[in-house]
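Re: export button greyed out
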Amino acid sequence: MSSPDYAQELRIALLAVQRATLLTKTVFHNNAKGTLDKADASPVTIGDFGAQALIISALQHNFPNDEIVAEEEAKDLRENERVRATVWELVKNTKLSDAAGEKELGGAIQSPEAMLDIIDKGDSKGGRSGRIWAIDPIDGTKGFLRGGQYAVCLALMVDGDVKVGVLGCPNLPVNDSEPLTEDIGADATDAEGKGVLFSAILGQGAASRPLQKGALADPSKITMKPITNISDATFCESVEAGHSSQGDAAAIAKKLGITKNSVRMDSQAKYGSIARGAGDLYLRLPTSKSYVEKIWDHAAGDLIVREAGGQVTDAENKRLDFSQGRRLEVNKGVVAAPKDVHPHVIEAVMSVLGSK
Ligand SMILES: Nc1ncnc2c1ncn2[C@@H]1O[C@H](COP(=O)(O)O)[C@@H](OP(=O)(O)O)[C@H]1O
Ligand SMILES: [Mg+2]
Ligand SMILES: [Mg+2]
Ligand SMILES: [Mg+2]
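Workaround output, generated via the alternate export path:
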């Protein structure tokens, strides 16, 4: 099933992300998040597993022939009955309050066993041909555990090109024009006035809408903020020093004349925040370790920023190439900025990284 304008894909993606955030919000408020350590020593929680199950179930119901690349796998759940039971309770009990929307997503998953198989349907190798969805059920798991920002991320790629992107950010302000504060990444809440869904379709611009419980709210167009003086820019970076070289980012900011401290927050909430003009730049500079970025950490954010009038490249000024499989094999780092100032930012990036 497909539509040339991707309207149906966007609608299902929005509903699926909305439903998954209801689950993650429940977990966010629980003291026990059911954390396990993955083989690479990074954390995964019952929220990650549950959100992935709900999103894949919705995609399979609507687009049964599409492939899916998702971050998590069910192996640890198959081996841990207690955690599996907790995830199943959450998945079984999370429904959109809008019955029509819930029906569009195909309703409930039938059994714990079906849930495990659904989670493992996200094992596509990715690549350059066909329709492939990329899912990050919780991006910023460390932020999620810390009580910071996190995002539920979903993108559709067709022949290696991102066509649709959705980010659900339960702990960001609803209001697009609320400027970023330095503490946005700490002690985040999903209280009144929080929660936003960002979205974009290639060639059709980017939008935001309040993340709410019932039917989808109406969208508002978002655009990046024009920068007249780069030294006034607000730049965003990861909270995690191990994910991005903060020393290099500071040197680049200095070179651009930026005196404000960076805004540090977890997850693709950074892409959404600059796309809506709450911040200006996103810098993710390669660390000394040879880490290769994953497609689900960037696909939706890359499209949303570009459709809001930005440019997104790696630190060598190459566009992010999502056609290489599950990882961004040919890219290093991320530099996102309004289109007209991006060359200027890249010049500073290259000068700082080149002189090392
Ligand atoms: N050494 C590393 N360098 C860069 N990114 C890393 C990394 N280790 C993990 N990550 C990725 O960074 C993501 C979080 O992004 P950010 O640092 O912007 O908050 C993680 O997503 P998950 O939380 O979904 O696992 C993970 O995929
Ligand atoms: Mg991630
Ligand atoms: Mg994740
Ligand atoms: Mg992870």
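Residues 7-222 form a domain with the Fructose-1,6-Bisphosphatase; Chain A, domain 1 fold (CATH 3.30.540.10). The button fix ships in the next patch.
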